[in-house]
Design a protein that fits this description.
alpha/beta, Rossmann fold, 9 helices, 57% helix, binds shikimate-3-phosphate
Length: 169
């Protein structure tokens, strides 16, 4: 199986969809933020606070190279800005999980662990800025995606099935 690379805005559910795909396919899921946190032995929040965003983006580039060379038969969930790496399409089939900003925000704040979900995301601290970032990225996500899946009001099972059908896996 060619890797599936899940892209999309913060909080859209990339990690949850990856876990559902593992359930359905018995493959392995990897998350770029988790890889970065273990490489750096500190949280994303800490990396942003102490090193700044540019440093974080450079680590993303290194992770992207490693994924391209070393990872097969897997579902890769990515941080919301990871889609900008140059070799994205060489990692696997790029699937955009798409939903309106309001629905994504709703999904985060309705989560039992909402406070932590917001706190750990440096680019979600200012809602107005996050909305602007969403608007800027929405066009870019669609340009790079091989497959766009509207995830609004769909169950994880439905989303994973749709991805499998459209990616033919
Ligand atoms: C970011 C999204 C985050 C994380 C970092 C930057 C972004 O991942 O990589 O805070 O630029 O959109 P999630 O999409 O999992 O929140």
């Amino acid at each position: 199986m060619k890797n599936i690379v899940l892209i999309g805005f913060m909080g859209v559910g990339k990690g949850s969809v990856a876990r559902e795909m593992v359930k359905q396919l018995g493959c392995v899921a990897l998350d770029t933020d988790d890889i970065i946190e273990s490489m750096e032995n500190r949280s994303i929040k800490k990396i942003f606070a102490t090193e700044g965003e540019k440093y974080f983006r450079d680590v993303e580039l290194r992770v992207a190279k490693w994924l391209q060379v070393s990872v097969k038969n897997s579902v890769v969930s990515t941080g919301g800005g990871f889609f900008k790496v140059k070799n994205l399409k060489k990692i696997g089939t790029v699937v955009l999980l798409d939903s309106p900003f309001e629905k994504i925000y709703e999904r985060i704040v309705e989560h039992p662990n909402a406070e932590n979900k917001l706190k750990k995301r440096p680019l979600m601290q200012d809602l107005e800025k996050a909305k602007l970032l969403y608007e800027e990225r929405e066009v870019q996500y669609k340009k790079v995606a091989d497959i766009v899946v509207d995830v609004t009001d769909k169950s994880l099972e439905e989303i994973a099935k749709e991805i499998r059908k459209r990616a033919k896996i």
